Each structure stands twice: as structure tokens, then as C-alpha cells.
Amino acid sequence: MNSVLINAILSTSPNYELLFDSLCWPADAWPEMERVEALTAFIEGLEQIVVQSETNLLTTAKRQCILEKKTSIIWTHCLPLLSRISAETDDVRYRESTAAVCRLVAICVRLCDPAVAGRAALTVLPSLQLSNEDQPNVERLGVETTCWHLLSQTLGPVSASGGWFRTDLSTETACPERGHCTCSKGNDEEILFKWTAESSKMLRQFWEDYVLVMETLEENQVHVVRPVLNRIDSLIQTTANEGQDLFHPSWLLCVYQRMFHSENKTLMRAGVCHLLELKILQQPAFASAFSQFVVGPFMEVLSETSLFCKAGGQHVGDCPELASKLQIFLKNFFSSLPTEDRGRVLLQMIQQLGSKHWCAVPLLFISQALSTLASSPLLAIEGLTALREVLRCTMITHQVLLRGAAQCFLLKSALCLIDVSTVTLDDIFTFLGNFRADESLCRGTALWNEVCVWLSSNDGNFKMKPSGQEGASSSKKTIKAHVQGKIHEFLSVPVCTGQTQSLPDPKEADKLAMSILLLSDIERSQAGSKIGDELQFLLSPLVDTLSRVGSNLYMPLKKSDKSFQLVLRLLQLRETSKVDEVTAALERLIFQCGDSMQEFIMRRLCGEMMELCDVQRAELYLSVFKQLSMHRSTIQQACFPKLIKYSLSILQEPPQQFPSVASQVAKAVAMASLAMVCHLMEQQTIGPDTFSLLKQLNEHFYKPMPSLWQSHSPLGRFNERLLKPHTACSLSNEGGQGPLLQDWGRTAAHFMRDQWICLNFLIKTLMLRDSEVPRNTETAVAALSCCVDALALLPSDLVLPVLTFMETVLPQLVQENEALCVEAVSRTWELVHGLSNNAHDFWPALKGFISVAFHQTLLLLTDSQAPVLTATVKQIATEIIELSESKNGVFSVLLQHCCQTWLPDSEQSSNQADGIFSSVFSHINIMAEGCVYGPVFRRDQRLVQDVQAYVEQLGAVCATNTVVASDNRDEQLPRMCTLAFLSRLDASNSLHQRLVEQLVVILLEKDKNMSKSSRISSNSLQHRVKNRVWQTLLMMLPKFKEEFVASILSSIFEAGFCSNQASVKYLIEWTVILILIRYPQQIDNFWACFNMHHEGTKTGICTLLAVLVHFGVIIPTLNNPDMHLAKALDITLQWCFHHNFSVRLYALLALKRIWSLVEVQGEKTVHDLKGLSTAVKACLHQTEALKNTGNANKNWTRIQEHFFFGAFHPIRDYSIETIFYTFPSLSGLADDEWIAPWKLEKLSCFFQMPPLRNSSPDLSQLQPGDWIQQDKSEEDKEERWAEVQKKITPWCLDIQGQDPDLQLVLQQRAARLGKQHGALLVVASLIDKPTNLGGLCRTCEIFGASALVLDNLRHINDKHFQSLSVSSELWLPLLEVKPLELADFLQMKKSEGYCIVGAEQTSNSQSLQDYRFPEKTLLLLGNEREGIPANLLQLLDVCVEIPQQGVIRSLNVHVSAALLIWEYTRQRLVSTSSQDKSKHG
């Protein structure tokens, strides 16, 4: 409007100076936007007059006056205002003013002198930069980017030689992200922006693309961002071609930083992958410029675990795509860096890894990438320290396998990157001591051997430890000399002062033991080495000490303690799986001192342990004693009776009124000694003297305590408590013994735990060997009560012996004292369930509990025998299954125990085996759940499972796979155990047959219940459960009896008529085929199915026709095959003329196969068919004609090449491998549903019928075919199948062809109730959730929308739709427009005068509070996940967004629509109210 008025005024030749003065504003005032826009329009109009001044419209003086006025406006009005805007805090006025002023500047400088334009640019740029105190924000970035874009149009003629723009605030200029996107700096100021006249076109294109990319990256919806991502490549290519002189690399880093900070994880991942594939980083200059960004923001974003999920096309066990790219990236990046920068950048990267606690997955893959770098001495002692800090970070994760794998890769990284000349041997062995032997660095693994090779190759090159003496030798010390020196230093202790000495720190012994074993393996690998002699010389100080420790009473206690610590670690770290030269020599040297060590230990345990610190010392001695016991010849049997007698004498001493330290320590040591003896005697033959002493020990526990003794137990000395001793130090926190007394509770707990270890051994040993041992019920009840009390008293990690004792006692009391058994089981389950977040204690406790609660005796109980206990056990089984949904592996423990109980590996008598097996019927729900078990994990849980599978696939290459024992927590393990159990069932056993039949009935009922869902999406839990059901049924089919098959056949056919996913459909078809082969008398029931469900889904008919495609394997088993061939032809021909294209295609394929069978029978059979043969040939001729009909030809080719109709053979391919691995992989199931045959082989289960492996490899070599999409339900059909012919129904006609009278019916119906409809048309064709559509229908009807547009009117029959619509669909016009028809529909409505409004967040969206809806409005709503597609965004007149104050920036689509519809209604109501007031005013 301004431009029209200005042009009208200018056409009358007014006074231009007067207009200039009237439109300008005072320099110190803030102008109204209308004034700025009017001045802009005026100057733009003058531009044409000035240009045409040669036609004498203007005099030269007047033209010069206009140019001076323009220049004056720039300097006196625009630039001061821009400076004020840059510092203005009022965001609303700030945004409104900037665009107008920038446009005015751009118009003014067009005709000004080039020098003016250059000066203006130099003046504007500093005003746009952020100060150190300013906080960057998105609004400021948008404004400044606009200024840059407008000013760039004027910079071409600034200078013929090029204009440079510099700033010393290089990390904060023009873009907020630059604060995190620093580049390597030179000595001078950084050049951030350059403009040259020669490259103005290219520069303008670059900055336009840059602004477009940065603005688009504001969005979080991938479909909006994806179309402009290719512009990033053009920016990078331009930068690479022109070099850093023209485009500073930090501008590119801002793009990546914006993507890294996106709320959308997919966009974040796209940014990371893009950077990983950046080719320009292979240029040294760019690699150097990007180095600080890589070690900073890039490493920060890599901490996001979700980045390492599997990419499309990858399977379980594959290395994540991003991890593979990261390895390649780091190799190329560090090889491209200048040599002098590599070490510094690598150190910064490792320090970044150790700067915070990383999740297990990112840390694992970054460590792996570092381990693949080329071997180069880049890290000094600082790098070794940084790696040790990263190693500390790995210890916090609960995933033991991932933790161990990360340690392996970190150690490999150190071997490749450490500069040995900068670190000492002591530094190296200290570093190696941080790796856990039970997780990574274990002797005998490939990693251990790598360390040995590395040490050997660098022997003599390590840095010497600084010496304080002048003129110290500069020669390098060898590893052998270093270890020898350390042994002497370790065993050199000061003379004993007589004061109490605590146990030395065991870390020094750990480090020295590892050093000795590494040196031994290095020496062994050298040719001609005699390792026995080498070890004898090396360990001579230790052997000398051990040989004298028993007889030398004056040896310092610290020296003996250190020698025992070193012996213990040497014996623990040696590889026991196989005996090599080192192990044999080590054991020979240590065990030759066995008598001396045993004498010392017995002397110390029998009377010399009196101090608080002796409790820990006793643990050391007992641990060494256990290690010596592995070499039985070194243990004198006489020591057991002596130790038992002494320990019993200590324990039977009467209690003191004020217990002393010596008495309580002696009791703790005595009980620990008895527990150790019981543990060792379980593995050795017990002599008669020892056995009589065991009876005394048994009496000690069960005999009632004297009345003077205070007992907290209902039975003898069960749960006897160790009292805290009274000392002067116990009354204060001062003194050397204070900290030990603070840990007295732990000592007391160990004392009670050791009691239960002894009780376990006694109850097992004496009950087996002595029939005179009484089995008193009262005693058993009291013992079980003590078990319950002990569970409350002991820490969670010490309760396992109690559970083991309970496993023996509780089954004896299920009949006599059910209430106590229920209490014991319930209390124990509460304890175990509470440990679910404590991985270290949970699994042992769970296994112990299941052995108790699901003991064979308890499983055999019936409801009549022990109703409460039976119900409790069943309830716990249900809770275990529920817990397994969130904690993987829990159900496996239960199922493995039950399967082993019901079908044990050991042979039993027939009656005994059947009696135990009969208990399975009381807990058949466990077996039924095992058949279909497999929770759908959250994405983060699934990612961890996939990474663990990848680590396992590495095998021995990753040492943690050798060291860490498999915990069998694979989510497929319960199903595999169930399959193995079912495969062992004997069909001739009546109990086994009964179990099979009951399971089949339960599974068919599960399938029926799942089929009731209105919509089952691919790979959903319902889909997976149905697939598992039919896999199990198919596997058990050979165990079905004929009568049973006849009883379930109707249910199988009924399941085939449901709308099934492709994988389920194939399994049902295969099951029917095998039933007809094994039981051909059921063929008549099969023919009868074709007369049912004529109006049902196409899936059912296609299932039956698919069976006929394989009629060739069925016909040999049938009586009168000619009759059945004719029947098959007759039925198939009928379906060849069906209106559904897919049904016709299946029928034509079946017809072709059946007719080929007829032709094989001979001409007589063909002649007998008479008229049928003519019809068949006509149909087959039609099939041949399909070859020339485009899409039909593709579909005909696809269905014939599909695996189920091509390579698959129902009999030849009947195997476990096909059912559980090949079929799922070929039918679109997620790869976590595939059960590989090698997994079942690891269970050592034998499959005979069906066999485990497939006899033919043909099927396993195929790839999934496209025809799989044809088998999906209507809701899951992809767009590319939209052209497939569909049945035409009256309500599915094109929108333009609908009868207007039909559209008026609902309006007339509503008008009778006084309802009025507005002009708002709501389009919801992109929404696919019935719940959202039902709620939206209700909202539209309430607020009087003219109509609601859906993608399919069948939604109104959905129960979820109806539950939320509450009959509103009866009062609101509903239209159907498919998503593919939306573009045409929107164009048609535009032509009818509708304003197309989209509910979407874009860079140009208008706020709902500011937008005024036209009366004729069409509101387009986006999809729940993807929003409005890009092809429809361009058809919108306007996008409206809802103002939000939260963080997640996402509302439910129905909620968003309701807000927009209400705002439209509110504006109409306000307008109507205003009109009414004006009429009555």
C-alpha cells in the first residue's frame, strides 16, 4: 500500500526534499515501523527516477541532492538505529525493527558511491558482534544473519583488491555456536569474512546457502531439514575449492554444532555421520583447523549412546555403522594432522574421555577406534595418566562384558601410542595393575600375550627412574633387573617395633605378582631359556622367606604377611585351565614350602590372633590355605582335626560380661577356620577321626545353650552373634584401632555367614552318612525359623549359605508347617526382589531362591495339599515373569531350573520320572510363557543387547570373552530352553502327550486373543507373540495324534482367516500343508473352508490358495487324486475372477501349479476334465497376457519368485533352522527374533524331528522378496502399492464426485437440534491413530466445524475411535481423502476460496495469538511423527504454531488441533458479538 501511494505522489513531481524531511525521524528517537517502511518505499520509487535522469526528469543538482539525502539517511538514521537495536533488550521491538531497517539500508546503498557501501559494511559488522557479556540466542542469530545477507548484496564493489573484515572476538562473531567452534589460531588476528568483487556471485550463493541451512536447522522435524542437507555438501565443496582464505572453517563448524545440539536424535546422528565422512579433513590445513572442534564439541556429542544403534540392513552382532565410520575417521584425521600436533590433540581427546562419566557403549567404541590407530609414539607420561583416568571411568558401568571390552581396547591403545622413552617400567606396571584380571588382562589370553610381546620388544628402551645420586648410570634398566629389584624391595621390611601392625596394602603385591608372571612369559618365549631355573633365581628371596616362616619365630610379621600376599596373588593369577612350564615351575617352588607355610598358618590360627587387625590377616591365611589345598599332597590331614578341636574350644568358652578384643577376635577367626575346613572337606575324603569331630561340631550348633548364656535363637547356637568388644578406642574415634572397630559390623556378619556354611556342610554330610542323626520336626521348624531371622540380619551378599540350608530343610516341612514355609518363601522373595538393582548380589541370590521356592517337593504340591503355599509359589512365578520384562535373564533362571527338574539329564526309574514330571501340569503357565517369551525392550535396552552381541562375536580377539564367564542372559534363552524341553518329550508317553495337547490349546487361545486387536503392526509385541505361537506349533506337529488334530483343525483354519502379518501367514500355511500330508483324511475339511468367510478379509482366501500352490506335495498322500485335482481346479477357477487383485494373483498361481499336476497325470486326466480344461487354458492365457501390462507383470513376477512359492519345499525344508531362523529372516521379522542354530547347539540339545539343521542350503541363501508387502494388512500397505486394484464402495468415491445431497444429511440432522456449522474444514488425512481421530471428531462436532476429512472412513468402526468420539460422527460430516490425493484436494479448495492453514512449526510460522483466521479456513493437521510432508508445505498459505513455554516443543496432534479449532471459534464468536453490539448500539 505504501508503494502505491508513494508512486502516486512521485508521479505528480512533488518537492522531494520536503518528502525526505517529513518521512525521516529524529536521530535520538525510535521510529514507528510504518514510517520506516514508508521511507523505504519512497526511496525505492526515487531510484527509478534517478536512474532515468538522463531523460531530463531530474536536473543534475536535484539528482545530487537526492544521493546526498540517501547517504545522510544511512549515517544519521539507519546505522545509529542498528547500533541501538544490537544493544536493545526488548525482543519484540527488536525483531520488528531489524528487518525494516536492513531493507532501508540495502535500498539506500544501491546508488551510493562504492566507498560509502564499504564504510557502511565496516561500520555495521562490529555492531553485530556479541560482547563477552552477551548471551547468544536464536532470535539474535536470525536477525544478524538477515543483516549479513542484505549487506552482502552491497559488498561487491567495496574494493577491487578485496575487502577484509577482522575481529579479535573470533569465537563469538555473528553466530552463537562459534563460541564452541574454535579453530587453531595464528599469530595475528583471525580473518573470519572476506568479500571480493571478482567472486561476488559465488560468495553470494555461498552465504545464501549458509543462511538457508542455519535457518532450516532450527527445525527439529527431519522431513523439513532433510531437503537442505545437500546444501552442506555444496558449502564444504566451496570451502575446499576456495580455501580458508575466503571462507573461514569455523562457519562450517557452526553448522555441525547446530546439528549436534538438535533435539531430534536422527538429525544429531545425521550430523555426526556427515562429519565422519568429511573428505576435506584429509587435508592437513583443514584437519588442523578442525582439531579443537573434534576434541571438544564432537567428543561431547559422541557421548550420546543412541548414536551407536544399528543402521538399516544391519543384523544383531554387526558393528554399528557409526562405530565403523569412527574408526576410519580417527585413522584419517590423525594421519592428516601435522606431525607436531598429533600428540597434543590425542592427549586432549583422551583427557576429554576422562573428564566425565561416560556410558558404556560410547566409551567402548571410542576406545576401540583409538586402538585401531597406527602405532606411533604420541603419548608421554601425561597420556598414560589420562588413559588411567579413562580406565577408572569404565569401572562404573554395570555391564561387565562391555566394561571388560573397553579395558581391552584401552590397553591396546596404550601399547600402540605410548612413547616408551618417556615412561618408566614402574609407570607401566602401575598402569597394568589397574586392569582387572577377571575382566580383561588375564594370563593365557591373546591380550596378555600382546603385552608380553610389547614389553619384550621395548626391553631396555624405557626411561630410567630418576636417581638422587650424582653421576648415576644412564644405561637403561631391563625388565628382569627391574623385577628383581622390586622383589628385594618388597620383602625388605624394617625391624619389628613390637607395636600392633595392620595388614600391608595388597596393591603392591598385585602389581609385583603381575610383573613376575609377565617376565616369566617373556623369558619362556626366548629360545634356549630354562624357565624353571629363571624362576628359581628370580623368586629365591620369596622362597627363602617362605621356607623359614614356620620355624623362624622372630621373623617380622610384616615380612611374612607380604610374602603370603605375594604367594596368594601368584597362585590366583596363574592360569589353571592348563599347566604350562611357568605354572608348573611356580607351583613347584611354592608348594615345596608348603609344610613351612602350613605350620605357620596353624600356629597363627591356633592362639596368636588376638588383635582387631588379625581378622583381616586371618582371611589372608585362610585364602592361602585354600590355594595350598588344591595341591593335596601339601596338606597334612592331621591339621583338620587339630583346627576343629581348637576352634570348638574357643567357641564353647562362656561369654564374658564385658567382651574383650582378644576373645571376640578369637571367636571370629575360629568360626572362619571351621567354615574353611568344611569347604575343603566337601572335596576330600573324610577320615573317622574327622567325622567324629564333625558330630561334636553338630552338637555345638544344635545343643541348647546353658541358661547363663543369652541366646537370641530358638535353636542352640544358630545365628549366634559376635559382640562388639569394649576398648578405650571404641569410646572415641581416635587411636589406631578406631577404623577397624567401625567395620566390626561386617566382621560380625561374616561370623554369622560362616556359621551357615558349617551348618550346610553338616546337614548334607551327616544326613547322608549317619542314619542315627535325628530328623526331628521341631528341630527342623526351629532351624527354618532361624533361616528367616538370618535373612533379616545378614547383608544381601552373604545370604547365599542361608538359602542353601533352607533348600534342604524347607521341603521337609511343607506338610507339617505350611504357614512357616509360606513366610520363609515370601520373606526370601522380598529380599531377592529388593536386590534387582544390585547386579553383584542379585543373580546368586535369585538362583538360590529359585532352588528353594521351586524345589521338586514344592512343585509336586497340589492345591488340596498346601493351598496357600502353592498359590504363593504360582504368584511368585508370575512376578518373576513380570520382572523379566525389565531385567533380562530372570525368567531364564526359573525356566532352566524347572526344565531340569521335570526332565533331568540323569536317568531315573519310570515311576519316579513320571511322578516328578506330573508337577508340570500345576505350573503349565511357565511352559506356555516360555514358548512365546521375548519382551520388546526399550530402544536403549535393545542397543545394549546388540552391543553385547557384537562383543561376543569378536571371540578370542577381545580377551573379555575368554575371561568373563557367560551369564546366559540372552532374551532368547527361555524360548530355546523350552524348545529343547519340548523336543525331548516322548509322544508314546501319555503324560508327555497330555502336556503337548494342553500347551497347544493354550497357545491357540493366545493366538486368538492376539487376533482380536484391531490393528497389529509389523514387529509389534502382538505380531511377535503370534509368530512364536505358530513356530512352536509347527515344531511340535510330529507329536500330534490324529484325534487331537481333528479337534483343533477348525481353530487352525479360523486363525488363517484372520488378518495376519506375512511371517504368521506363512507359518499357518506351512502347518496346514503338513497336516494334510500327515493326515490326508482331513482334506474334506480343507475344501469346506472355501465356502466360509466369503466376505472376510482377502488374507484368509490367500492363505488357502497358498496351500494349493503346494498341492503337489499333498496329492501323493490322497486317495483318488484325480477327483481332488478336479476339486482343486474347480475351486481355484472361481477365485481367478475375484474383484481383488491379490486374490486373483494367488488363484492364478495356484491354478498354474495345479494344471501342471494335471498334465503330469496324462491326457486321459485332461480329457476327463472336459469343460474345465477350456476355462483353465483361458485363465492361463490371461496370465501370459500379464507380461505386457506393466505393474501387473511386476506383481506376477514377484509372486512367482517369492521364496514361499519358489525355493521353499514344505517337507525337505522342515527343520528347526528354517522355522526359527530362515523363515523369520525372509519374512520381514526383526533380526532379534531370529534364533540361530548355533545357539541351540550350545545348549547341547538333540533335535530329531524336526532336525536342527536344514538339509538343503538353497532357502538360506535367498533374500526377502518385494511380494512380502502384498501380504500386509490394508493399514500397513506402502504407498507404492496404492495403484493395486481395490473394490469400489459408495463411500470411497473421489471427493469431487460425492453427491452434495449426501453431504447435507448430517447438517440437516444437526439443524433439527439447533446446531450450526461454521466454515472451518479440518483435514486429518495424515493422522493414523484411531484414538486421535476419535477425539478430533468429537472436538470438531462440539465447535461446529463444517466437516472432518479422514484418510479412510473405516476408522469410524474402530472401537478406539468410538470410545473417544462418543457418537459425534453421527452429527458431523465426514469425508474421505487419501494422503496421495491431498495435494489435488488442497488445490481444489484453494480455488473455492479457502485459506489453507497448516499446524506446523517452521521458520516462518505465525503465532496463534497473533493470527487472524479467515472465515473460509481449511486446517491441515500433520502426522503424529512426521508432521506435514515437504510437498504439502509449499501448498499452504500460512503456517500457525502454538506458543510454548516448555522444553520438549511437542504437543499431541489432537491437543494442538483442539487449541487451533477453539481459537478459530473464539474469533468468530468475538466478531459476531461485536456485530451484534454495533447493531444494537
How would you describe what is shown here?
The strands form 2 sheets. A 7-stranded parallel β-sheet has the order 5-4-3-8-6-9-7. A two-stranded antiparallel sheet has the order 1-2. By secondary structure, the chain is mainly alpha-helical. Helix content is 58%, strand content 2%. The two termini are 32 Å apart. Strand 4, helix 62 and strand 5 form a beta-alpha-beta unit. It has 65 helices and 9 strands.
Unreliable stretches: 130-143, 149-188, 469-474, 729-737, 768-774, 1266-1314
The description of the largest β-sheet is: 7 strands, parallel
pLDDT averaged residue by residue: 79
Number of separate helices = 65
Percent strand equals under 5%
The total strand number stands at 9
Strand order of the largest sheet: 5-4-3-8-6-9-7
- The shape, in one word, is globular
Write a concise synopsis of the structure shown:
The chain is an all-alpha fold. 58% of the residues lie in helices and 2% in strands.
Structural descriptors:
1481 residues; 65 helices; 2% strand; single chain; mainly alpha
Layout of secondary structure:
Layout: H1 2-10, H2 16-23, H3 33-51, H4 60-87, H5 91-108, H6 114-128, H7 138-152, E1 163-166, E2 191-195, H8 200-216, H9 222-225, H10 229-242, H11 250-260, H12 265-276, H13 284-301, H14 321-336, H15 339-353, H16 360-371, H17 381-394, H18 400-417, H19 425-432, H20 446-457, H21 479-491, H22 506-525, H23 531-538, H24 540-548, H25 557-573, H26 581-591, H27 594-605, H28 614-629, H29 639-651, H30 661-681, H31 688-702, H32 738-742, H33 744-769, H34 777-793, H35 800-809, H36 818-834, H37 839-853, H38 856-859, H39 867-884, H40 890-902, H41 910-917, H42 924-932, H43 939-953, H44 960-963, H45 973-983, H46 990-1011, H47 1021-1036, H48 1042-1056, H49 1062-1078, H50 1083-1089, H51 1098-1109, H52 1111-1114, H53 1121-1135, H54 1141-1161, H55 1163-1169, H56 1171-1185, H57 1191-1201, H58 1216-1226, H59 1237-1242, H60 1300-1312, E3 1321-1323, H61 1330-1342, E4 1347-1350, H62 1359-1365, E5 1374-1376, H63 1382-1391, E6 1395-1399, E7 1406-1407, E8 1417-1420, H64 1430-1433, E9 1438-1441, H65 1453-1480
Helix pairs in contact: 1-3, 3-5, 4-5, 4-6, 5-7, 7-8, 8-10, 11-13, 13-15, 14-16, 15-17, 16-18, 17-18, 18-20, 20-22, 21-22, 22-23, 22-25, 23-26, 25-28, 27-28, 28-30, 29-30, 29-31, 30-33, 33-35, 34-35, 34-36, 35-37, 36-37, 36-39, 37-40, 40-45, 42-45, 42-46, 46-47, 46-48, 47-49, 48-49, 49-51, ...
